[in-house]
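Handout, section 4.2: multi-component inputs.
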Amino acid sequence: MIKDEIKLDTITIALPKGKLFAPSRDLLKKAGCGAQGLSEDSRKLVIKNEEAGLSFVITKPVDLPTYVEYGAADIGVIGKDVLLEEQKDVYELLDLGFGKCRLMLAVPENLRRDKLTDYANLRVATKYPRVAAEFFHGVGIQAEIINLNGSIELAPMVGLSEMIVDIVETGRTLRENKLAEIAAIHTATARLIANRASFKLKSERIHSILDAIRRQLHSD
Amino acid sequence: MIKDNFIPQIPYGVKDFLTGEAARKRALESGAAGLFARWGYQEVVTPTFEYLETFDSSTLSEQAFKFFNREGRALILRPDMTCPIARLVSTRMKDADRPQRLFYIANVFRYEQAQAGRQCEFYQAGVELLGSSCAAADAEIVALAVETLKNAGLDNFKVSIGHVDFLNGVVESACLAPRDETRLRGLLAGRDLAGLQACAAELAFAPALRECLREALFLHGGKEVLDKAYRLAGNQTSARALDNLKSIFTMLESYGAAAAIDFDLGLIRDFGYYTGMVFEGYTPGLGFPICGGGRYDNMMRFFGEDCPAIGFSAGVDRLLIALSRRNAAAVLDPGAYIAWREGFFAQAAAAASELRSKGRRAELAFCAQSADEAFKSARGRELIYI
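Output:
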């Protein structure tokens, strides 16, 4: 009795706005999890595919792990960088391989110094305060962390900070702003994550979606 | 003197229970207490704060609220009830019979990000069974956990059982350098399957081990997963863990609890002190476990006694949320309002006593009222006008 009721539940999938949205949607569609009108600028907040028992929500990337941790979404796609920063209690099921980028420490080219430890006691602007703090702690330097929400490159240009910890894909933005990467902190790709309770209660469906995605990744 | 614009607040992570909530909480806790007592468990109450050392064997002390007493000794607000009960049993109840069946209903304190049904202060109802390493003790605890959820009024839930030695056996069989083993265990504890695969590739694990690590966290379902698990993990430690689970499950069938149970060999509990069978309960619509527990045979050694132990606790706050979401929360008796005309106070007081002695809820008017006034004051309650 208990099992049947659970099985009938739909699966809610959270997708992040921004650069991971399109590849996530396309991959899921190929793996048999699509929905009509699933687009990033849809006015609908929840997009349903009743036949397939699927429901999609589109969230801001930083909020996505929270939706999944609380079980408001059963599974979701999100960058490893966000997972590292948010530290939510979720299952990290699969490395999807796309959205590759790296978290790094950069300084204006004219402030470059010889060793990492020469950068002690400086200010660092970042969207990733936890990752940055852990990194500095790990290399044994003290730094003042300034938490910003975007346009991190601006901070050293106007004297808000000496360094930045940010995410880069190609490094073009860095070069354009005369910033030099001085340490790699993490590499990050998109991950498939799942809620702890959903992973147990809806394990069959989540497992089959996971298998379909794996097959899709291998065939690409 | 009241300051201007002064709005008294309560600190982050604590909450007030208002009248309805508090009543539902009380009903749930009394129900659990009654059930535990019927299973032969006796209640104990331990102090809200203890010396910090009591929690040295637990990783929970990192998340705890700590402070100093006037002598400068470090104190801790209890982050769980398992350590205090282990301390209690190994000291004050040292000479008491074994096995000991104890229960508690208590608030515990952890400094963490507030979640659904998990503030910094939250309430647990749980039991500890000390002095038996038999599979029947494990089965009793799981069956009692299932019964606790049912007794609370929850009808749609699943309890998954696993065993820490299943994954321990897998990790040991890899024969890793300590550093790599720590990394592997960290990934398992973090439920990071993507990281596990990367780690397996990087450390060039044998294909059988890689397959095992890939599948381990998915070994979830009915009895058939045990057979699959035996095949996947060809080591003694894992096999013994599976044997143990098999015999526990057979007993759970006898309890009639098997329908609510399944196996989850990838189950990883948040605390490191477990040594055997572990389990967690889930209900749809709540993204967090609603109850959990397991065997912790080594903890008592920390308190100077070699004594096997097992226990579980259910989150009272989480149960309340789950129940309110399916409207199964206890319906409260609105009670009766007893109003009286001038000169009839004595009769009204007698009527109230009579109702109360029958277990009804009765409220008595403070002054004589007309029928109209009485009707207004009753506000939906049964009106008795004398």
